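Q: Got a minute? One more chain.
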Amino acid sequence: MRSDLKDARIIIADDQQSNIEVLREFLLMQGYENLYEFSDSREIIPKVKEIKPDLLLLDLMMPHLTGFQVMDLLKSENLQSEYMPILVLTADVTQEAKLKALKGGANDFLTKPFDLVEVGLRIKNLLFSVYLLSRLKEQNLLLEDKVRERTRELEITNEELTIAKNKADEMNKLKSFFLANVSHEFRTPLVSILGFSELLMLDVKDPEILGQVKYINGSAQRLQRTLNDILALVDIEKRKIEANLRRTEIVNLIQGLLPGYKRRADISGLTLTHKIPESEVFLLTDFDLLKTVVDNIVDNALKFTTKGSISFSVEIEEEGTYPCAFIRVADTGKGISQEQIEKIFLPFRQVSEGLNRSHEGLGIGLTVAKQLVDVLRGEISVESSEGKGSVFTIKLPIVQSETELKARIHSARRSVTREFSDEDPKKPDILLVEDNEGNRMIFKKILSENFRVTEAADGVKAIALAELKRYDMILMDINLGPGINGIETFKRIHIMPGYQDVPVVAVTAFGTREDEKAFLDHGFAGYIQKPVLKDEFVRIIRNFFQN
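A: Always. Here it is, folded:
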């Protein structure tokens, strides 16, 4: 279709020559010049094939072939299309004729005598619709070309990415093989260096030689720690490190580390003090990984402290309704500026960098410590200011015995006030278990319009509340911070009388399909991934009640 509608090719077909002349003169006045006239309807089909018109003005009542028959022929010979609209102009005013014409292929219908102004508007509208249709087709073709071109580019890119990935996989295999060899080649001589230097420190009496042997031993230990950190960082990046979490008593194990720390402090001319509980402390942890974390924190303190002391402590403090173990390493070193604190857990970063850096090492010890603490489901933080030393704190939840846990639940049950809502008792009761205060506020505000909501910030309080009242639904966060997690809380509530049929829905940031399957396998009635939009959140919960 031409962009200038006045260039449209128009066929006028009417057995009355006077009608043709009227239409011809009117269309010429309107600026249409490509006009083709036929009083014999048998000539229409050949002309349509020849010129492919943009519009057909068709009378119905003609000798030889009626307008209906012309439209049938156009269909049978595949000549009729959306790009050649048909405007019927007829003296047949019956509704039957109009419906038959429109069903037969006509796009518009006017009866004689017709108003020329209206005819002009109908023609203009039909031609403009064809123009828009043709432009749309052109754009679609252009878009298809671009899609094909883009698809080919993506195919090429995918091929290149596949090649690059294969090369990267091969390089990773070579890197792993190389690191394994490096590890072996470093560790084998280190055994001799460390072993013989320690034996020499026991036998050598000359102070000067003893100092040299201690320096050899300290350098070998530093090399061993650096090698361990490099291998740990590689494993972390490859997500190969998995914690073997189990109930572990840490006081005796940490006491076993102190002599080594004290020896290194003595070599550096520093005083090491410590404060450790006398009673047993149990953590759900992997002590090998925890030892690496503590080693790196202590190593960092020794490296950046030139005089003064280092204090090492393990303290038990309440965190909400749960006790946590806080392992702290404090030094009297140079301290860290606020700007540098934001960088120290990043790989290969140090407080002093570049050619003028004043401390040895690759700058990955704290990175490894941070990553391993995450694997151990704990937290690590630092408080420091320049010139005043630093305090690194590792926080890990304590594992309570069944007796201790039951005592806490009993205590929570006594302390839980019956702050049950006085709202409409017809509203369903929901127990919202979520450790994040902001999330609780948001979820409660969303739900309060349709439900009565009771909040619990941890598993112990949730169990205590469930013992006091049967809820119609429980929304359970999985990672509830210190103490029992959402899965353990669910299991304890699920076995309570009356709770076997109460839907417990996991509302969590754990977002993989494997996570969802695991929650459903544990017995959760459903799964909602955070963050969730308000309408979707309400819809999912309503569905549970409707079903």
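A: The longest strand covers residues 309-319.
Q: Perfect, thanks.
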